[in-house]
Request: fold
Amino acid sequence: MKISNENNQIIDIWDSHFHIWDISENTISGHDVEQLFSPKDNPIYSMDSYSNDINEAGSRFRHTGGAFCEALSACHVGMDGDEYISKCMAETRYASNALNATKTNNIIISAAPLEDKNIGKILTNLVEDPLVRGIRQILNFEPSWPRNKQQGDLLVNPKWQRGYAELKNFSMTWDLQINPNQFYDAARVIEKNPETPVIIGHLGTPTLNDITEKKDDYWTGLKVLSELDNVFMKISMLAYTDSEWEKSPLMKDTVLRVIDLFGVDRCQFASNLPVENLWGWDAKRIYAGFLSLVDNQFSHEDQQKLFSDNAKKVYKA
Reply:
């Protein structure tokens, strides 16, 4: 690691994981009031809302754009088939209209049920929008996120695996959100599809127990994933692990070890706004925390990679 003596230089933020949504009564965005929340008691979290929030990151930062990330794979529990697909398409249209109205450089990570028999057609429709770069489908199983309680462990589902293999035909990225106990299964799928860039979300969503009592499992599995050249790491949603992570030497050591494991060129910071609000985090606190992890640890050039350049490269933004 290089020590940075350039503490006053501006760092660009290209935020590789943010959400916008509309859960108002007359929404056409595809989102689900049962699973999503109203940031600051407003059911519409728009690009204006997000821009106002991210621009509070602080004077060391300049926001240049980012990756809108789907929320539909946590929504509409029990819904599937054409009805659910129509919601996914609606979310992408909603995001595209919102992003096209901005002056920043943004792309879309869409939702799609890879286990669907018509996944090729679904992906064909999605990539008609030039902003769409990739797909995310939340796969956390036991502990399970909302849709996965019913759908089971999709990672080991042959129908889902066939759908995953389709991604390379569309030059799409994959945002991988799983639990640490799924790292090995994920590695087996990824290894069979080396053409698809994979971005692990949120450090692999570890709980505090995963990096303490079960730390050997976490690090062993993560090492297997890091040895695959097409796998990248998104450092985000740290409050899921520790709601006061900026005060935790363990969390700092964890993040620095992850960067060391994957290499500085394969890691990226992301805000996960507005979800972080649930744990009491706004952009100012998030980015001050991120900066505290890497200031005086990395050169300005490497910090720029972590906050912007690496994400833009993997998402072809």
